[in-house]
């Protein structure tokens, strides 16, 4: 991907942010539908077009054990991986379309990516090795899962919180 030049325009917005494996700082320019990378040594900022047909609206992101970034594309309803070495962006589609992929956390021990599907009240788990998805419906409508976190004592338990219900809950994957 070629970086886009910074030119005068309306503020691009800055939403999600994460530090990649090379210590560069990435953030989502949600109003411009771009990803941006800051080199902390030089302060140089590069912008990258998201390879999505339409307005993807990038939101929150996180980093996996390899230092690569995972980003929720809210309007696109997709999950995007950014290879921190090559800047290559790959988009993955959860089983439920128009899902409102929002918040992303990574279970670095098991190499699994979790994403909140805010528009459809689900939490999804993605296995990058097999590209398999599992979606977990939340217990009530308008659960509004905007923020998710992995329980540090149990990577099979994912906490969620939302603005609408004013509650916190969790999804736990039990052993079979």
Beta strands, count: 15
- Structural class by helix and strand composition: mainly beta
Globally, the shape reads: globular
* Helical coverage, percent range: under 10%
**CATH topology descriptor of the domain at 55-172:** Methylamine Dehydrogenase, Chain H
Describe this protein with a few key phrases.
176 residues; mainly beta; Methylamine Dehydrogenase, Chain H; four-stranded antiparallel beta sheet
Task: Report what the structure shows.
The mean pLDDT is 92. The chain has strands at 17-19, 25-29, 34-38, 45-49, 58-63, 69-73, 78-82, 89-92, 101-107, 112-117, 122-127, 132-137, 147-151, 154-161, 168-172. The chain is mainly β. It has a domain at 55-172: 7 Propeller (Methylamine Dehydrogenase, Chain H). It has no helices and 15 strands. The chain has a four-stranded antiparallel β-sheet, with no helix packed on it. A four-stranded antiparallel β-sheet has the order 5-6-7-8, with no helix packed on it. The protein has a four-stranded antiparallel β-sheet with strand order 9-10-11-12, with no helix packed on it.
In terms of topology, how is this protein built?
Elements: E1 17-19, E2 25-29, E3 34-38, E4 45-49, E5 58-63, E6 69-73, E7 78-82, E8 89-92, E9 101-107, E10 112-117, E11 122-127, E12 132-137, E13 147-151, E14 154-161, E15 168-172
């Amino acid at each position: 991907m070629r970086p886009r030049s910074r030119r005068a325009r309306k503020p691009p917005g800055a939403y999600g942010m994460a530090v990649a494996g090379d210590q560069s700082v990435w953030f989502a320019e949600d109003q411009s539908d771009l990803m941006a990378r800051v080199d902390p040594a030089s302060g140089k900022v590069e912008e990258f077009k998201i390879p999505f047909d339409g307005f993807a609206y990038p939101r929150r992101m996180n980093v996996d054990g390899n230092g690569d970034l995972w980003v929720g594309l809210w309007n696109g309803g997709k999950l995007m991986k950014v290879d921190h070495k090559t800047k290559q962006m790959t988009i993955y589609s959860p089983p439920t379309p128009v899902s409102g992929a929002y918040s992303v956390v990574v279970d670095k021990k098991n190499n699994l990516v979790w994403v909140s599907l805010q528009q459809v009240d689900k939490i999804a788990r993605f296995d990058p090795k097999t590209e398999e998805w599992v979606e977990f419906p939340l217990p009530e409508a308008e659960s509004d899962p905007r923020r998710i976190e992995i329980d540090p004592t149990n990577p099979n338990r994912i906490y969620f919180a939302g603005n609408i219900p004013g509650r916190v809950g969790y999804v736990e994957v039990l052993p079979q």
